[in-house]
Batch of 4 targets.
Target 1
Amino acid sequence: MAGRQAKRVLVVGLDCAAPRFLFGPERFDMPNAQRLAANGCWGRLRSCDPPITVPAWACMTSGKDPGVLGCYGFRNRRDYSYEGMATANASAIREKRVWDILSREGRKVVVLGVPQTYPVKPVNGWLVADFLAPDTRADYTYPKTLKGELEKAVGTYLLDVKDFRTDEKDALLDRIFALMHNRFDAAHYLMTGKPWDFFMMVEMGVDRLHHAFWKYCDPGHPKYEPGNPYEHVFREYYQALDARLGELLALAGDETAVMVVSDHGARAMLGGICINQWLIENGWLTLAEAPNGRTRIEDCTIDWPRTRAWASGGYYGRVFLNVEGREPQGVIPAAEYDVCLNELIAAIEAMPGPGGQPLGNRALRPRDLYRETNGVPPDLFVYFGGLGWRSVGAVGFDGIYTFENDTGSDDANHDFDGIFIMDDKTGRMGGELKGLHLMDVAPTILDWFGVAVPADMQGKVIG
């Protein structure tokens, strides 16, 4: 809908917010979000591949996919060595994000807690970095003076929920609520105290809540117990979140175009697939010595001349081939790369579940997903059971199936669809929208401002 104009734009990001809790028969009573949707439009927002916080928010705000960004997860290979993994912070993102383009156009921006914004970079306005900042002793704001100003206004600024994989749930729930209120207090201060044209914030507490409490709230989770003391914490949190959203909407005013979005959704985690254990049992990976109990693959000595593939764990799997002339001790001839990869894909996708039933795995080549593949992509992404199962990277298990997470207590996996609610104040759009992708967000924001959408953005203008 080119040519529409918005005086100001507010984007509220809710990391991991799930469509089932905002739309449809299971939705919670969230009057502010629902009024926003009724006045505008709403729908499911398809995440990127892989559907994970890093790089999903960068894809959303740049309008470009992970292959173009060269960022395939929180940790990526620096090179084709066996040790070179690096955390993908803001330095990994070299493409312009929507606030960079608006800054160049002279618009005043406020960016609060959006993932992959630490280390901070200059903007035409104010920026408060994300949870990738090591702690609040770091310079996590732009300009630097904003740090003291913000802390004077809201007290200690909370970058994230500490220890959200703990089994001490009462104290954890307090910390999750505290993060949400702290983030919205900071938003209130910046929204009222700074002149802005574009304002974007991300609240991480939804993600932490889902991972910590899913089995308590979802009757579909295999470990759910009716009547448990945390049975309604999702509803309580989402409703408290909605109240804070209502405060921001009131501050923003009737002429501000608004989006409420999430980077991906969530679903019950049914268990874990020990991917490196499976690679060992199927002759792809050989260890120089047997592990002493459950051991991270990074702490194992791998017999590289006898290894064709190894993997990293997480909410999805990343599999790397040991290719001759590419890896230091590669064994797969380059001419046999595709044959070997196809063999591995077929074996992974044929993997049965613990009861012998088809698990429904998908093994995907990055080159088939992206326009280009910058950086060092994995050779395969693996979604176990359509993201119903986590990828467990550690070895030393009795079999390939586990119902304990190797990185601490966690009940949820990510899902492909996040949320999208939009009120552009034109009255020209309404109801449910289909076919939305998170890369559509950046071009739509630029269109609202009448700023030309760069030709290399992959998303479309919504409307």
Target 2
Amino acid sequence: MSLVSRNPPKYIMSILELQIRTVLEKLSNNQHADLDVDPDTLETYIKEATQEFEGALRKQLFREPEPFRLRMSNIGRPSCQLQLDNTDTVAQTKNPMPYNHIMRMMLGDLSEVLVNLVIKLSGANITGAKTKVAWALDTDTVIEGEDDIEIDNKVYDVKSASPWAYDNKWSRGWSSIASDDNFGYVGQLVGYAYGQNKEPGGWIVVNKSTGEVSVIEFGMPVRDIKEVIKECQQTAALIKENKPFNRCFDDQEEEFNGNKTGNRRLPAVCGFCPHIRHCWPDAQLKPQARSKAKNPRMYWYSHYKEENSNAV
């Protein structure tokens, strides 16, 4: 799903982000007495956070294999990936998860718990959390999920991000996410909100490396939201009607400093897909051709000439 804002907004710190940063600044400087929270309430918040993380650990450590189904967390992803997720015959070509996958998942869960705790300490107007949502895409297709938190009756999703994603995607505002939404974040948020007849508030994002926090306010025009919903409906129809597989992306001829390298590179979204070998059996993860950088960026290629690379 890829929508480009016609007028990309300038990043402005929201009141919610200011509240979160103020609490973190006080805690970072041992100014606990300045928090407007009585000891009994703070004790309650700590117990709630402990219980939330225990539940998350049990979910991750005892997760059972589940049959594929459309859900809020995947409805905005590329339809070709979901078609393959729904096909048992491609299991042999599916990339296994890396060993650190479970650690990333648990760190993401912990980030969410900590963000919820800080929001409570900030005094923000929490109007709901962990709400079970059912979003009717059409008369007989309902997508279910559970939102993260609702503030001032707006739905927010909590995300943890790598330093690169935090600086180059999230910190540039909602339009940066919508323009290259490989993980379906926009469809997920819209589903959570519209499934409850509420407004999408945005995303609360934690940099997993630095601990920085940003609140990315959702500002998509209604016309673009309608397009998001339409794409979700089309994806659901593909799965429901079991239509023939259709690859959504093509490789592209690579250029470096304005010159063609003779290689063909895959879109970034394909590199994140566990079914990359189904669509591109000979795909190779290689350093950027002709790059003279000490640590060149790695890309997935459908065709790669070793002689075109200066990397060791």
Target 3
Amino acid sequence: MSATRGISLDGGFPSLAGATGWLNSQPLTPAGLRGKVVLVDFWTYTCINWLRTEPYVRAWSQAYRDDGLVVVGVHTPEFSFEHEIDRVRQATQERGIEYPVALDNDYAVWSAFDNHYWPALYLLDREGIIRDHHFGEGRYEQSESLIQALLGVEREPVSVEGRGVEAEADWDHLGSPETYLGYARAEHFASADAIRFDERSAYELPERLLPNHWALAGEWTIERERLVLDEAGGSIAYRFRARDAHLVLSPGTRGPIPFQVLLDGEAPGPSHGVDIDSDGNGLLEEGRLYQLVREHDTVGERTLEIVFAQPGVEAYVFTFG
């Protein structure tokens, strides 16, 4: 989605003063950025849609900084564990982010821009006027063309190829939606047992899962933004259709937690994601997005099950690509 060129919010560059901290830079201000073309990128490090756009933002920052472009990342956390500065710092390092990042734990910058999405790009001219914005993935050539126009340069677009979790989705075969697990936004829960909110309960997997439905086995507490495993051996299952399957997980206050992924009841073999081996073994060490499946052949409907060896696991959202 794109805004009409030439619009502004509140007549100029929205305030950055509400940032709770900065990475890679001293605090920036609209006045200090005057005379620069500025690309503001709202992100949160577990968001698969942002991860797939980040190679482009990173490449634009490197390709056009000598021409007067400043990229400002604004990390506005979606989940509670994403407020921790050390985790955000680690994510910036892992993604090779060298441009300034505002930490927006209080959603002050988000509110100043009246933003509602991850990822969201806002392009401002040298006078601090918002000339364009775009929500979500895609439209990369048009965004780069607008950057060039505001900078007064003309050249071939940068060459970008995302790798690992940053790789572009297989849109032609993507048949499963982002699926939140906390009760505030959960859909298509398929365990036969009556769902209970904010209390420990036992669940069982159904004999068969319908497409894009999910279920639990074992002792779990279903909370507003997440599931919490209360007893070792619990599992989550999802019937999906996509090349890639991801799950945002956190070990909470526990140490590393081993887990195993099964595809249609068997080890994933060559279909394993970057965070597990071919036998399906993985280790939950930190809160982030884990890639569990990457198909290399024909994409079909599969049942994914993740079995956790210890309690304390927190599960937030499935995403696909």
Target 4
Amino acid sequence: MPGEVIAERYELEELVGTGGMSRVYRALDRLLERRVALKVLHSHYVDDDEYVERFRREARAVAQLSHPNIVTVIDRGEDGGRQYIVFEYVDGENLKQLLERTGPLPTRRAVELALEIADALAFAHEHGLVHRDVKPQNVLLNADGNAKVTDFGIARSLDVEHGVTQTGTVLGTSNYLSPEQASGKPTTPATDVYSLGVVLFELLTNEVPFPGENFVAVAMKHVNEQPPDLLERRPDVPLRLAAAVDRALAKSPADRFRSMDQFAWELRQCLAELDSPEEERTFIAPSPVLKESRPRRLRTKSSKRLPAYVLVVLIAAAAIVAGIMGLGGSKSTKTPPAKGRSGGTTAVTLHGVGDYAPSGSSDTHADTASSATDGDASTYWYTQTYATPQFGGLLPGLGLVLDAGKSVKLSTLKVQSTTPGFVAQVRAGDSSTGPFAPDSATKTVGSTTTFSLSGKTARYYVVWITRLPSGGSARINEVKAG
């Protein structure tokens, strides 16, 4: 309680924050006569060896990190069975409080803060630590307005094979959770890259990419859904910065920045270009890791109109070309359109773009979806289990989402698999995230199975699996319309 003295030295003055593991107080260091922040492990964890070790490890880990953008550890100890850590006291608000007070930040300020956070995390990564809980609440602002990263309470060492937390345990805050954390997979520095991408998105829009009513719903959005278009939420953001956020938020760690240092370097380039005229800025094309179905608004280097005399010359040139072509005779030179498999005039090419699991799943493999439409039967999309023990319950099914590129009316869908025996149905819809309506009968899939479709007009199709084969793993090697 405030007024209590810890270790005969630290007088508690005010409770300034409470988290899942601990409370944080502003305290007076009677020995050195200065304000400090004192974190005390919750009393109900003091007999839990795992939590005590995690708490101690935070102190040891952060004590190694001497960086201007990381809160400094001063002391650690135990008093009457209570574990505590003493940090430098940062007399300022955190980023969440700043956003609640001001709303979206100016672009320059948002990039400056994100860059300071990136530098701090890159330093931690160099010293073998992944933060794993990067969020605005864990970034304090000092009197000069500089960012100070804190709360490495669930940080994980990169140089140990087995730590306090194991693969399969979901740790972190759902709004900032990386897809691999949501799936209970191992974390890497790319995990912090993703979370910082979420933070930067929020600094620019005052919204998180994936809001939701509960932890499970939000976690599954991180796994299965593409983030909203930053340029639609904040049109004045430069293209290069929007592309950097897109890359940081890629579902697959391999598609993000290779390191936090690389992310920081790109943020520095974005910051430097903010002072440049728009026509001199680096032109950024849409990210190749985005789904083809996601529209992007592109800007040209200059919005100036062509002079009138240039338009006259172009129109005249077009007329001359048309006249020359007309001299060739009246016979048609058009190539007859190719008849598509769906009965239209253009062949339909499907693209695997992700998973569909409306009830949520820890076993999604959205990053392998494109392998089911790459023309190579040796590669595949797959799912192993519908069980989600860390969230509870079983899934009614799980599906491979296919994008036709536009609304079409397919007549058949052919599925090839090297794991025959699973039960599936084809469903159709207008969004990659559902809902989907049945478009075929349910079948047991063999090595090659053709589904006859009822003829719904839709852009997205799902091979919806409701029962796995005896081996417990279903693979879809190739899917074709026709």
